[in-house]
Amino acid sequence: MKTLSFGEILFDRIGGKDHFGGAPVNVAVHLSRLGAESYMLSALGNDAPGKEAEKILKSENIKTDFLQLNSVHPTGLVEVTVEDGIPSYDIKEGAAWDCIELNSGQLEKLKSMEWDLMYCGSLAQRTRSNRDLLHKLLPVLNYRHLFFDVNLRQEYYAEDVIRDTIAHTTLLKLNDEELPVISRLLFGEELSGEDFFRKAGRDFKLEMLVLTLGPAGAEIYHKETGGKALPVPTEKVKVVDTVGAGDSFSGAFLYFFLNGEEIEKAGWKAARLADYVVSHAGALPKMDQEIRGKIGI
Predict the structure, then answer these.
(1) How confident is the model over 43-66, as pLDDT tens digits?
(2) What gap in Å lies between CA 80 and CA 9, rounded to an integer?
(3) CA-to-CA distance for 297 and 294, rounded, in angstroms?
(4) pTM, entire model
C-alpha cells in the first residue's frame, strides 16, 4: 500500500512542551506504523526544529523524497491550549509548510508513481502557492483514492477551496462541528450526515463520508451500503487530550479498509486506536503491546 500526504508538518506546543504533528503527517505516521509505504509532500525550515522533524520522520519510516528544506521560513509551530481535554490552536503563519514546492524532477517522479491513497486537507491550502500546487497535482497524479480531511482551523478555509477539493475527492472526513459549516458552504443549509452524503454523492464523485463525533464515536456512510450511517462506538477512557484523535482514526480506518477489511471492522479498529491516542498526551504516542493486540498488528 503506497500513500502520499500533502500538507503541514509542525510542532504542537502543549503546556510548554513540543509535540511533533500536523494532520497530514499524523495520518502518514499512523499509516506507516500499520504497514503502508508512506510519503510526505511538505516543507521544513532549515533550523533545529526542522532537523528534529527529519529525525522523527526517518524513525517512523516516512519517505522524504518530496520533502523540501526552506532556508527562509521556519518549521511550523502551533500553540495549543487544552481546556477540559479540548484543544484550541494558534497556528503561526509564514511557516515552511506554507511554501511547498516541487522541482521538475520531483514532479515527474510523482507523476510516474501509482498511489493507493492521496491525503490532503484545507489548512495547507491557506496560501495561494500551496493551493495552486495541489490543484495542479490532483488532475495528473495516479491515485486510487483522494482522502480529503477538511480539518477546519481558525479562519483558514474558503468555499472555493472546499468545493474545488471535494470535486476530486472519493473519501471525505468531517467532524460533527465541521458538518454544519460545510453543509452551509456547499448546500446553503445545515444537513444531517445522511442528507449531506446523499447530496454530495449526487453532486460530486464522493464514495464515502467518515463523520467523527468525539466521545460519541463516528458514523461512516458509503455508497455500497446505501448511504445509511454505520455507527462506530468508542470505549470509555480517561481523556488526556484529543489532539490528533481524528488523525489516528483516519489513518487506521484508511489502512484497514483499503486493505480489504469490512467497513465495520475497519471502523472498530480505528476507534480503538483513537481511544488509545486520547488517553495519552500528543498526537502520536508510541503504541504499546495492548493496543497492537487489539487492532491486530
Answers:
(1) 999 999 999 999 999 999 999 999
(2) 15
(3) 8
(4) 0.95
